[in-house]
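Input chain follows. Return structure tokens only.
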Amino acid sequence: MPSTKLPRRRPEEAGVDPQGVINFLNAVAEQKFDLRSFMLLRRGEVLAEGWWAPHSSEDRHAMYSVSKSFTSTAIGMAVDEGLLTVEDKVADLLPQLMPTNPHPNLLKMTVHDLLVMGTGHNQDPLEKARPNPDSDWARIFLAAEVENVPGSTFSYSSGATYMLSVILQTLTGEKVVDYLESRLFAPLGIKHKTWQESPQGYTTGGWGLKLSSEDLAKFGQFYLQKGMWDGQRLVSEKWVELASSKRIDNGDDPHGDWGQGYGYQFWVCRHNAYRADGAYGQFCLVLPDQEAVVVLTSAISRTKELLDEVWNHLLPAMQDHPLTVGEAGEEAAKRLSELQNLPEPAGETATDESWSGRTYRLSEDSNEGAKLRAVRFTANEDLSIRIEAWMSPNSASTSADEFNISLLSGAGEWQKNEAPVPPGAPGFAPDTGAAYAWNSRRPDGSVRLAIRFAEEPILLDWTLVFDGDKLQLKEHGNSELNEKETQLIGTAENTGE
């Protein structure tokens, strides 16, 4: 049975200058990147790791499009097993799903074209279909106009990855997540993963996978080892080479990491590196020349800037020989162990907390486009506050669409809540679990609340001002994710009590 933990070692012993780690952490702090985790591996050993509290090593993270690289791996294994080739036509593999009058270019589309995002579409056919729970994603994809000859142009498409998932399940009778269980997840000791499914029961492929940071690090190390793990070959070295090197042009920026070419569901980077890349700063960077892997999970939009800091500080820290163990190593370890998102102090209980236990229905007029419909806050003797929020998918939804989230916020400290989002809640992944929350009472009687979802880049940051039966709820938004500050007005429903 493989170990579920990677070995650890001091960075100096593996030729990594810990001052580079310190400089990277300084840059993250200076630029106010909202990172959740960071891991640096070299030659299969973890040299530096840290989680910004309240996030922890036990948390899983939404991988977003990092999921695509796992789907590519499944296709590579199926190719190794002789189940298909990259030259196979999509139309031949999925005849039962083909439209009556297929677009001529669709008949030319191959598995290779799906892998390199060269389907010939100008836009992902599933972009508008995915929010509709009744749509058949595969049929919509295949019925779409294919404006260009497949393989001629790069156009990023999660739908292309989804079709790879459909093809694999059609050939094997197994969902991608199940197909990979004995072939990848079990050998790497990856146990606590989940992966979303489409309305038709296919693994979504291009998104929806959740893993811990260490599990993602194992995946990067597996690719660094060219498909080997614990002396066993899991996917061919040829597939690793194909997947991790340029297969199609994706831009003309020689100095950027989004124009170096695209492989089989991996991005080619500068410095002869490549990466699995997910929205909001989920990265698994593989650096073959340095025999290194860097894992980052985040809630940011400035992903280019974050990669720049990796190249500026971590890359030059890697030397060809062991280094003398010194104070910098101790300082780096200390800094990594103390990473945190600080809550405000608890404050003191106000003389008037008549808001406790009252439900405030938020005004439609002031809540345009928002999901929050009603809230209730219940104060406890230890200054913690029970938060209940009724939400709906969008501003046009009715009360029948509302779902409830209930969690506890710690007074001046993060309180962990398990599974606060009910299964099937619109707008959230179906398995959204842990969330962290804190509250602070201010001298003016207002209350500040912050909620971080452990697995999603979702941050709720509120200031509550109570005035009789009225509530002024200020949503501070998240400038990092281009969320603007808004103000909602609520009226207590139980005014007669």
